[in-house]
Predict the 3D structure of the following.
Amino acid sequence: MIRNAEGPLPSTLAVGTKGEPNMSTPANAALPLEVAGARKKFGDIEALAGASFDVRPGELLGLLGPNGAGKTTVIKAIAGRVHLDEGTIRVFGRTLTSRDSRPDVGLVPQELAVYPLLTARENLEVFGALYGVSKSELPRRVSWALEWSDLKDRSGEPVKRFSGGMKRRLNIACSLLHDPKLVLLDEPTVGVDPQSRERIYEMLSALRQAGVSIVLTTHHLEEAEQRCDRIVIIDHGRIVAAGTLAELLRNALGDSRSVDVRLQAPWPAASAQPAGWRVSDDGRQVTVEVASLGRDLGSVLGAMNAAGVEVADVTLRGSTLHDAFIALTGRELRE
């Protein structure tokens, strides 16, 4: 488990008197992030075509889209590394221009941004100085970052000796030394093993418990399905859907369920299956989409009985984020 560092934590990560995170937010507090009408072209390529979405306090928001959909461009625009052609970006109520500083924002890029010849501690000290952390405050924050990322025992080793997961954890920690309240992570778990991936999400969970808002892009749909409070799907520079997993599934696919029926013997060649039924290549499994289990399952099994088909097993499947993603974009996530 990720441990809290000894001594006081950075202000965003302070805890209450009973050891619980300080999560109180005024009712009239501005949203951590509001993107409205974002447009950006690179030559003839329209990377963003009016994208709009927001992030709520303490929320983990998943930003999904096929390759080239505009995810990284919008992340860079929020961080001030890309200047929008049109649209506005507001962070905690402040409308930002490309020249404005962003002390409330932390950016974790997809490519590792650490120095391999320096130690973990030296990397943190360098990035802390670059972020403007004072000399008097820097030792405390570096100690916290090493403890939080579970790298304290390896703090004196050159980063080139680290595993991919350790480098990723250090990469995240380096982006948090200035105590941001909004963190942008572009593919933070790419190329890491499942154990390291779980450790990274433990780190992010600790941030959320402290009230930090997180925007995360990922190609792992199962991660977004399990971890994110809300999901925003972007395609061709436009937001095509946004909401909780349940909302996305309902809006994209309705309340239908898939019924997989395993047969004792292959479907008879002389019997035509009803329209919409899908029979596997070996003829032993039939998949049917039903709008209502109570109303439609009996008729499906009755039709099979009438066709002289003997049922061996029935499996019910709910729709997944992958199903909704394909329905909304028509593309696989990695296309």
About this structure: Residues 194-209 form the longest helix (16 residues).
